[in-house]
Amino acid sequence: MKWPRVGGPRPAASPGVTPDVAPGGTPALPAARPANPQPSAPAELDYNGRKHRKAMEHATLWDMARRIPTALAQTARLAWSVDRRMTITVLLCQLLSGLGTAVMLTAVSKALPELATSDAREGLAAAWPALVVAVVAMAVGAGMWILADWATRRLNPKIAAAADLTLVDLHMRAELSAYDTPGFTDRSQAAEIGALRAVDIADDAKTLTNGVVQLVSAATVLTSLHPLLLGVLLLSVIPRGLGGVIAARIDYRVHDRTISARNVRGMMRWWLTTPELADELRANTMRPYLHSWYRDMCRRVVGRELEGARPYLFVTLLAAFLAGVFTLGMWASLAALALSGSMSTAIAGTAIVASQTAGRALNSIVRYGAVMFHHGLYLSDYYTFIDEVRSMTTSRGTTQVRAPQRIRLEEAAFTYPDRAAPALHPINLTLNRGEVVALVGENGAGKSTLIRMLTGLTVPTGGTVHWDDTDLAATDAESAWRHVGLVPQKNGHWPLRARENITLGQPREHSDGLIWDAAERVGMSHVLKGLPDQLDTLLARSVWGGHELSGGQWQRLACARAMYREPAVLVLDEPTSEMDARGEHLIFRELREMAPDRITVVVTHRLDNVRMADRVIVLEHGRIREEGTFDALVAAEGSLLGELYALARDR
Ligand SMILES: Nc1ncnc2c1ncn2[C@@H]1O[C@H](COP(=O)(O)OP(=O)(O)OP(=O)(O)O)[C@@H](O)[C@H]1O
């Protein structure tokens, strides 16, 4: 590929070499590279969540047969939980459709001997009742199939919504520590795939069970007509069955070999098309590389899909050929049996009709059995995961917590599950109502971890956290969180209306008075009044009609949300990192004014803001290194706060 060159073929400045000086003495900008290197092909990426990537390839027929009943039972459980009436309708329709086939075949076997008589008129007269029964049975069977389809269509969206809702809700209710358990995200992704496929699986289950019912009906009728016919039937359908399994495997091999590329391409697609990254992409001329990356990914997917086309054709042709040979063989055997007088012509004719029905049924069984086997693996992941997360939902105790006057940490320590070293070593600390406490420390010192412990978001792995006399480890966590207002480092840009972006989590009254009051406190009321629909404006640029705020405005809104709650424990983690000086000043002034009624904790790296705190706690490597007023700490010999403050001013 011809790669565009930027800036012409000027040599780049080597490290340590003084940059060019343009005529007139102004230092020239660093020269662009003489020629851009060819971009490398996208890495072979793998998606760790795919536990079952080789399952289909390695599965034997027996594995599939064993697994399918479990998948069917799980599908039935899902369907039953969302709509019992429709589930019963599907099941009844399946049974009646099978019964229709059996009645139709029996009626055909009754009609054929009559029709085989030499006088056609007489034969028809004798056969018509059986023919009418056959036609009605066929019509009933077809009607039942359509009814089952209708019922499944009613079930599908409900199943999808219920599976998704369960999963999302459990994520929201899980202890934060659940996210830290090894492999949680992988299992969550697999469960999400299971939830997505729950819809397909209901359809697959319907077609598969219908196939089974049809096959059983055909086999029963044939066996009752002549025991030999069952063997003959099996011979005619086995090649189709094997062909179907091999073709399904080829399909899945292709699916398997392309899924990573398709997933990654899908994720990249979002990055390439979202307005959020549009500036960075353009201003840094990233398009050529990203275009080539995306095109290579498309080629990779297409190439692998095409590779599967030839073996697929070969297998389906071979299966069809063998099925044809076996069918011919079956017809020949039936003819021989009829000629030798061991079987009546009518029964032989019925066998041919039944074998056609059974062949179609077997095709469905094999095709949808394979699909169900694969989807079933993800469905069982879904169930395993929801059982796992259900056992990890936040349920620490039933004691209701009241708004605290005091938060006390005694030897409280925290170690993340996959870490050897503690994020926080045992800490003793008391925070009092009316006090503003600033937490300071370098990146990774343990500030956010400490915040999580004192708000009851996590339970310490050692020691205790008490709100007054109540140990948070044994309380109803929700009752504690009702008293917390948290502005985390990364806050949500919720795609909701402006009103909900302030009231989210605590709708306090029906009028908008308190909302405007909160907006005023963070200097956002004039911005919200300028929105097309004021508080009713949807704050989501990507959604039609939505409106986007700036980074600092979003942060002000997060502060307004916390203030609106009027919490007893107000915690702000870097609340003003994106705000202008006026916004920052306003927020910290407001925090001081609100302070008497609550415990206020602020984490900030902008050390000038720390002056307003009553007490500064300096953390280092998970330990409290210093504690005191800002002025005293800055003045103290060898203090970390003093050092950090000096660095902040050294510009
Ligand atoms: N979910 C997690 N799993 C494992 N380790 C974590 C996790 N979150 C934080 N840590 C580790 O715990 C330590 C303390 O992290 P914490 O986020 O509390 O620091 P911080 O002081 O808030 O840092 P910053 O100023 O960068 O926000 C760090 O070493 C970090 O790598």
From TrEMBL:
Q: How does it sit in the membrane?
A: Multi-pass membrane protein
What's the chief localization of this chain? Answer: membrane
Residue stretches making up the ABC transporter domain: 407-646
User: What GO molecular-function term can you cite, just one?
Assistant: ATP binding
Q: Which Pfam families does this chain map to?
A: ABC_tran (PF00005)
List the PROSITE patterns hit by this protein, alphabetically.
ABC_TRANSPORTER_2 (PS50893)
- UniProt-annotated stretches for the region Disordered: 1-46
Tell me the keywords, alphabetical order. ATP-binding, Membrane, Nucleotide-binding, Transmembrane, Transmembrane helix
Q: What are the subcellular locations of this protein?
A: Cell membrane
Residue ranges crossing the lipid bilayer per the database entry = 87-108, 128-148, 312-334
Protein's recorded name: ATP-binding cassette domain-containing protein
